[in-house]
Amino acid sequence: MASLRLSRRRVLRGAAAASASLAAAPFVRARPIQESKLKLAAIGTGNRGSANLAGVLGEDVALLCDVDEGMLARGIRQVSEAGGAKAKTYVDWRELLSGEKDLDGVVVSTPDHTHAAITRAALRRDLPVYCEKPLARTVAEARELAALALEHPVPTQMGIQIHSGDNYRRVVEALRAGVIGEVSKVEIICSKSWSGGSFGEAAEVPKGLSWDLWLGPTPSRPYTSGVHPADWRRFWAFGNGTLGDMASHWLDLAHWALDLGAPTTISSTGPEPDEVGTPIQQTVVWTHETTPQRGEVRVEWWDGGAKPPGAPLGNCHVFHGSKGKLFSTYGSMNVVLDDKDDGWASPTPTFEKSPGHYAEWLNAIKGEGPAALCEFGYSAQLTEAILLGSVAYRAKSEIQWDSAKGTSDKGQEFLAAEEREGWDV
Description:
There is one protein chain. The protein has a domain at 4-161 and 355-375 and 409-420: Rossmann fold (3-Layer(aba) Sandwich). Helix content is 29%, strand content 19%. The chain has helices at residues 15-23, 48-56, 69-81, 93-99, 115-124, 139-151, 166-176, 211-215, 241-258, 357-366, 376-395; strands at residues 4-6, 39-43, 60-65, 88-90, 105-108, 129-132, 156-159, 183-190, 265-269, 283-289, 296-303, 316-321, 324-328, 333-337, 399-402, 407-408, 418-420. The strands form three sheets. Strands 14-13-12-8-11-10-9-15-16 form a nine-stranded mixed sheet. Strands 4-3-2-5-6-7 form a six-stranded parallel sheet, with helices on both faces. The longest helix is centred in the last third of the chain and has 20 residues, at 376-395. The radius of gyration is 21 Å and the shape is globular. It starts with a strand and ends in a 5-residue tail after the last strand.
């Protein structure tokens, strides 16, 4: 078995650079494009990969990579049916990134545990990257990618597609205009539940699946059913449960609208933590210290059917302000003011309509638009905050987080994970 090394050694390495990148306005170095279409590689072509492929098929998706022959065949058909040229295929993304010299961008749609390794390798080649959410599986990985994005300022985008929708822009404008006054608390309710991962008995690897390549940088283990292609989210080894799957979409709006930055304290409750499987239900509380005028902001996450007293059922945000509340979903917004006689009006729009989440990234590569709004300087810090919720839950304790140093007072063993040699390309 390949030897292991601890990627937690990277927690401090580049922490200062990561902190700088998270605070700095993005500078994007666009690549000179000679052809009318970008030459792209798609790594991961099934499930989310199929959706991401659909978002970039207006370009030349010339290279496809997947460890599952069935999913790779699906990607080939998708490119062909869209009128694209026959794509060159790979099973091992390391061979693709080391062997192809004239790429304009890489789309990463693999499971969470391989996001950082692939994205890291692409950034080191100065390749623009679109990476499916969450950006990484551990805090250490998120911070390393933030530092690399600062060192290699190419166009990047994390896959939070709802960020480019009109409704989120209207909510941000309303909150920043003070429609409900100063916001002191945000409740986020997510009804979904990815939980209960448990490794069964070793089984024969299905035909067409390269299991060792699927494991990537994680420690080697026998193949078992109930992991690939989607249930890996139920395992700490590969994902972060419901929080890792959905918080990028829901927590994003609070971070964006309130310009929250890094949290200072994080706590989380739920069932007794399991060493292998993620929880069926989880609550997380992040405390953010903002400006002296605004004071402290408390952000709460409730998933798996749990919700705060008095909150509505279903997926939503509840922003608590000094003048009232704002309720929002992906596609709706409702304001309820404490003074029923005090009406409100939507502020004048300040955000232009997005050309689309994929188009933001593609246009930035071509030099035809500004940096994408979910570039890694923003999305790495959002990912870090999300994953600190997992750290607090597994540590069974409130943790104090020092973003400048990249350290916590408790739960340090959960900030990073073991990584096999041969994957730091």
